[in-house]
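Worked Example 4.2. Consider the chain below.
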Amino acid sequence: MSQRNSGSANSVKISDIQRYLQNPEAHMKEIRRTSMYLTNKHGVLRDAIRMIKSLPTLKYGLSWSIPDGEDISEHEEVVNKLLDDINVIDVVRDGLLEVAELGTVVMCLRSNKYVQFLELDDLKIDKQRNGKWVVEFDLKTLDEIRDLKDRVIKINSLPDEVSLAKYTRYKKSNSEELRYVEIKNCEIVNLDAKRNTPYGLPFHLGAWLPILQKEIIDQVERSVSDRLVKQILILSAGHMDKEGTKPVPKELIDYYFKEVDSLIKQKDGENYGQGGTDSSGTGVIAFPNMFELDALEVDTTFFTKDLYDKIEDDIYANLGISKALGFGEGGNYSSATVNSEKLFSVVFSLVGQFETAINEFLKGMFKNTDITCKVKFDKSTVMDKQAEIDSRYELYLQTSWITPWMEAVMDAPIADIIEMRQREINMKLDEIFFPAQNAHTTSGDKAGRPTKKDNEIDNDNTAGSRNSGGNNNPSPSD
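Applying the procedure from the previous section yields the following structure tokens:
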């Protein structure tokens, strides 16, 4: 993200959030900048979007539709090369992180080699063509880069449609028609966006108000702590006579006040101004009996534990994540399971959008042909990996379809598994590696499957069954 995006918000007020929530569409830039600020500042928000990024396994397969008789292997090689070149899994994970934080991500396929995420503040997205949003780059945003060399570097990092020549032509004409440059091969993924707007909202937007309320309480706590550390002393002056008729002169009060002040500054200098010197001790000053020096009592019981718990609950409730799922405390296994399934549905809806965007990129590779290819991501997470393995093993037992089971166990595409197995065979690894000796693999002093001699018989029953052909008889169940 650009520096102007990440550094523009250095403080957020509750009144600001309330204003944004009243009309989010009119404050999209402010919402994105606020989201970046709060995400970087509060670990609970950062952990929430990290969870969204890391939860899905993102295993995928390809679904083809080709004319009869046409060889698929060549096309499959081209598609796999594209998915490898763009690092499709990393693209989706990075996209999940960004869309959760900013609400919107614009993906641009560059030269069929990599996917670039465009900066939202540089774009204008306000019209559709054939049901798809048209993405345009705003050349005026380049004016913010004063240094010519930096401006050229910025232009070179943008899609090919944006060039220095187009920027120069726009600056000379100052025409609104030349200000915006359409960028092709762009796909938009958003979270909680209305159908008539391309921009979505950050995942943790609902938790901002309780987060700021907790921040206010933390500020009060720090103020109280500061008052405890820097103790406030009260110098009281009485009367010079027992009858209380002669007040202490102002000159005498000023004198002792300066003495106390000088002593305190001296102690502070010893404690904080000598490079960490340990100067514990007590300063001594003598007062006449008409003076008293007392410490101001500070009330440290402003907030009860119930208030802290309520705000904490409000944060997680507005995040939509249970404490048990967030950091392992609170709730129980059943509630955490239900909550995780709810979160998974949100994550997989986003994965589905990225799936659609990547399929649009693939569609462009087979334009003007009868061939279609679609990528399909598994709807599984790292938390239910064992359940996935078990279900696919059951599928293998019922149908002998081994590919899904092997991919789940090995966590790799079947093509890679076949290649590894073929390499093992070619290297004759079975002659180098074999099962360790144990009761199941040992016969005499040789490793491997136990063997029997032709005339070796386990017991009388075995001998009888062999001689009478009992092994050829049908089993009772038959």
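Residues 333-365 form the longest helix (33 residues). The chain has 18 helices and 14 strands. Compare this with Example 4.1 before moving on.
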